[in-house]
Design a protein that fits this description.
The complex is a heterodimer of chains A (about 240) and B (about 170). Chain A has about 240 residues and is α+β, with helices and mostly antiparallel strands. Helix content of chain A is about 40%, strand content about 20%. Chain A starts with 5 loop residues before the first strand and ends with a strand. The model of chain A is unreliable at about 180-190 (pLDDT under 50). Chain B has about 170 residues and is α/β, with parallel strands linked by helices. Chain B has six helices and ten strands. Chain B has a five-stranded mixed beta sheet. A three-stranded parallel beta sheet of chain B has the order 1-3-5. In chain B, strand 6 and strand 7 form a beta hairpin. The chains are: A alpha+beta (about 240), B alpha/beta (about 170). At the A-B interface, helix 5, helix 6 and helix 9 of A face helix 1, strand 4, helix 2, helix 3 and strand 8 of B.
Chain lengths: ~240, ~170
């Protein structure tokens, strides 16, 4: 599939199985944006945007994070450097979230959570990326999902520099999401992920966060003293899904 | 002095960006008169993260304590970030025991949280010696101990003994 190819509104409607009216409504709401091309001012859609719509972002992100042959993600999802992520694409997310009904949380708080998770990837892997530098960042407002992933060192390795007593990914997840601690010695602050926990516990946003072989499942009503952590396929970075 | 945060951007995220903003602003801050007040204006800020606030706002709050006034801070992300930018108050009645450190609960305040219920949060980890010093300085008499799962029995015993010897009654709870 050629990613930069443009599709007419009719072709797009057919591919997605929705009416042209629905596409127009999605366009005005920012769910799936069209482009005006040529003198006629007709709406066109980028084939890549439609492809994203047709594909499941968590699956794409997860496949990228744990694939054995390292490769850069598709450029639409790739924030190689921090500035591309924030304020860059994070700013666009904040604008887009304002158009979503019943978000279950104030849009600024959701953007702040995404910012903390994404920034964390850069801060803790600066100069230490094992293979691919940067993060995967994508969202689908129609499916109400935001995905972030990195192929960095993971939380356990980062925290072990200040907490050598940590031995498992599960312990590392618990510390990262419930304690104010930073893996960046001698900095003793680490409010970022803890604030994410607080926001999830008081909103209708669900968080799945994987690192190493551990998966944290956090939602409103979860007990922060006994986090729900299960086992997942082993990989070396971090992977997060926010559902709202 | 008026600090208009929108001049640093409308999406204020990341520790690095906050630190950079503070370094750039320090020369301006250093010419402040002895009793001059500082007003931090959040007007125009769409998103503020705790990390940015930690690096830019926390040092100002710590240095100029009662001379700082916050205005136009109704944005929920600003409220949440400011909640973290202020020093946590330790709840000296509850401590979680880890294999290598002790972590007090945070004394939460419903009003600050702006939610129906205060949320449990942990604070900084302390070494056993530091934690004991905090407790004795504050004349603690009784403390609830929460061992983490799979905590080594001898570790729990050592912590209990340390506290009891300092005259602090301990109650172990899961």
């Amino acid at each position: 599939m050629e990613n930069d190819k443009l599709l007419s509104i009719g072709e797009t409607a057919k591919l997605l199985g929705v009416s042209i009216q629905t596409l127009r409504r999605w366009d005005s709401k920012g769910v799936l944006k069209s482009f005006r091309a040529g003198a006629s001012g007709k709406r066109f859609y980028k084939q890549q945007d439609v492809k994203v719509f047709l594909n499941d972002l968590p699956t794409i992100g997860w496949k990228w994070a744990c694939q054995t042959t390292p490769a850069e993600p598709e450029k639409e999802f790739y924030c190689r450097t921090k500035d591309v992520f924030a304020p860059g694409r994070l700013s666009r997310l904040e604008d887009d979230l304002q158009k979503v009904d019943n978000l279950g949380i104030h849009h600024s708080l959701l953007t702040s959570m995404v910012g903390e998770i994404g920034d964390n990837s850069y801060a803790h892997n600066l100069g230490n990326w094992p293979d691919i530098q940067g993060i995967f960042f994508a969202y689908d407002l129609n499916k109400r999902v935001i995905v972030l992933a990195d192929r960095g060192r993971g939380i356990l390795k980062t925290l072990q520099s200040v907490r050598p007593g940590l031995h498992s990914h599960e312990e590392a997840l618990t510390v990262a999401f419930t304690q104010v601690i930073s893996g960046r010695f001698p900095e003793r602050r680490g409010n970022g992920l803890k604030s994410v926990t607080q926001n999830v516990l008081t909103s209708n946003v669900g968080l799945t966060f994987r690192t190493g072989n551990a998966q944290l499942n956090l939602k409103k009503g979860s007990d922060p003293k006994h986090l729900d952590i299960t086992e997942c396929e082993t990989f070396h970075g971090c992977f997060a899904i926010l559902k709202f | 002095m008026l600090i208009e945060l929108k001049k640093f951007g409308d999406i204020l995220t990341s520790r690095e960006a906050g630190r950079e903003a503070l370094s750039a602003f320090l020369p301006t801050l250093n010419v402040l008169d002895k009793n001059e007040r500082i007003t931090i204006d959040f007007q125009g800020v769409s998103v503020l993260t705790p990390s940015w606030a930690d690096e830019f706002i926390r040092p100002i709050l710590e240095k100029y304590t009662k001379r700082v006034l916050l205005i136009n801070d109704a944005n929920p992300s600003v409220q949440a970030a400011m909640r973290f930018a202020q020093k946590p108050k330790l709840d000296l009645n509850n401590v979680t025991v880890f294999q290598d450190v002790l972590v007090f609960d945070e004394a939460t305040d419903d009003k600050i949280h702006n939610t129906d219920k205060a949320v449990f949060v942990l604070t900084f980890p302390y070494s056993d010696e530091d934690a004991l010093r905090i407790l004795t300085n504050n004349k603690a008499k009784k403390i609830y101990i929460h061992p983490v799962d799979n905590l080594n029995g001898s570790r729990l015993k050592a912590v209990t003994q340390m506290l009891n010897q300092a005259g602090i009654e301990t109650v172990i709870s899961k």
